[in-house]
UniProtKB/TrEMBL annotation:
It comes from the Bacteria. It is found in: Cell inner membrane; Cell membrane. It comes from Plantimonas leprariae. This is Phosphate transport system permease protein. Gene3D superfamilies: MetI-like (1.10.3720.10). One of its GO terms (cellular component) is plasma membrane. GO terms for biological process: phosphate ion transport. The chain crosses the membrane at residues 40-67, 87-112, 124-142, 178-197, 293-316. The lineage of its organism: Bacteria, Pseudomonadati, Pseudomonadota, Alphaproteobacteria, Hyphomicrobiales. Residues 87-316 form the ABC transmembrane type-1 domain. InterPro entries: MetI-like, MetI-like_sf, Phosphate_PstC, Phosphate_Transport_Permease. GO terms for molecular function: phosphate transmembrane transporter activity. The keyword NADP does not apply. Pfam families: BPD_transp_1. The gene is pstC.
Length: 329
């Protein structure tokens, strides 16, 4: 009798175990399928955007061919369109913005993690992160009504006077001080991408093991040496990721740049001259694009920006892979 009861109890236990295992397996399968669906959805959306851009850009590329990428003429009246000026403005403003923001952002991150007094770290860190939360249109309004007049009265005349005797730099800083222009848009972009670079760099600098830095200080290394030989090499992969995040923000920024760049479809050697970017051109002219060819030209600009962003991200991934490989060796 006792053995029969024990056998029934074991059978019930096995049955409950099987039910629990089936329930766990069903939950895992559901979770796996949901995550797979989310990943596939991202690919579908990306493919849909690419197909839409290609389909919309076909008439423009069919009419102008490769010349759309090499011509700077933009005349909606005569239906002559070239995307070189917006491409030039996008690349130049993003490059100058990173040239300014990267050293400043890394410097702020190093100060917060290595040099800043502990009571000030949180307030300064919060202030930097608040810059990322300001809407881009606020940056644009501030840039147009405050920053641009300030540059027109101070920095731009100074640059014109200083570099006037120098042949090559004279061309980069020539012309009247408009206030708005390529340089102003680049400075606004630098301010906008600064918090992204700083926040990511600060977080990854904080992950450096204390024993490494303390050992370096114990050997007599200075803060500069610890930063350049310990902190930056240890976090170079993640730091580059933060820089690429800032570059992505700079390439696609629209409203702030539209306010301060001048929106002129031309390529001028001077950084003080007005210009345009791909996103600014689309934002300014899409509502006015009445003809099919005009609309297709704007789609073509969007496709070019899409390709530029893809190429930049691909290069970043390649650089990260090589850096990881070298670190592994």
């Amino acid at each position: 009798m006792t053995s029969l009861a024990a056998g029934q109890a074991d059978a019930a236990t096995d049955h409950d175990r099987q039910r629990a295992l089936k329930r766990f397996a069903s939950g895992d399968a559901l979770f796996r399928n949901l995550t797979r669906l989310a990943a596939i959805l991202v690919l579908v959306v990306l493919a849909g955007v690419a197909v839409s851009l290609i389909n919309g850009a076909l008439p423009a590329f069919g009419t102008f061919g490769f010349g759309f990428l090499t011509e700077s003429v933009w005349n909606p009246v005569k239906e002559r369109f070239g995307g070189l000026a917006p491409i030039y403005g996008t690349v130049v403003t993003s490059f100058i913005a990173l040239l300014i923001a990267v050293p400043i952002g890394l410097g702020i991150a190093i100060f917060l993690t290595e040099l800043c007094p502990r009571p000030l770290r949180r307030p300064i860190g919060i202030a930097v992160e608040l810059l990322a939360g300001i809407p881009s249109i606020i940056y644009g309004i501030w840039g147009l009504f405050v920053f641009a007049p300030f540059l027109q009265a101070t920095l731009q005349p100074f640059l014109i006077a200083v570099f006037k005797p120098i042949p090559v730099l004279h061309d980069l800083f020539a012309g009247p001080p408009y206030g708005i222009g390529i340089l102003t848009a680049s400075l606004i972009l630098a301010i906008m991408v600064l918090p992204f670079i700083t926040s990511v760099s600060r977080d990854v600098f904080s992950t450096v093991p204390s024993v490494l830095k303390e050992s370096a200080y114990g050997l007599g290394m200075t803060t500069w040496e610890v930063t350049t030989k310990i902190v930056l090499p240890y976090t170079r992969v993640a730091t580059l990721g933060g820089v690429m995040l800032g570059l992505g923000r700079a390439l696609g920024e629209t409203m702030a740049v539209t306010f301060v760049i001048g929106n002129a479809h031309r390529i001028a050697p001077s950084l003080l001259a007005p210009g345009t970017t791909i996103s600014a051109s689309i934002a300014n002219e899409f509502a006015e694009a009445t003809g099919d060819l005009y609309t297709s030209a704007l789609f073509a600009l969007g496709l070019i920006l899409f390709v530029i962003t893809f190429i930049v991200l691909a290069i970043a991934r390649l650089m990260l892979a090589r850096m990881r490989a070298k670190a592994g060796n």
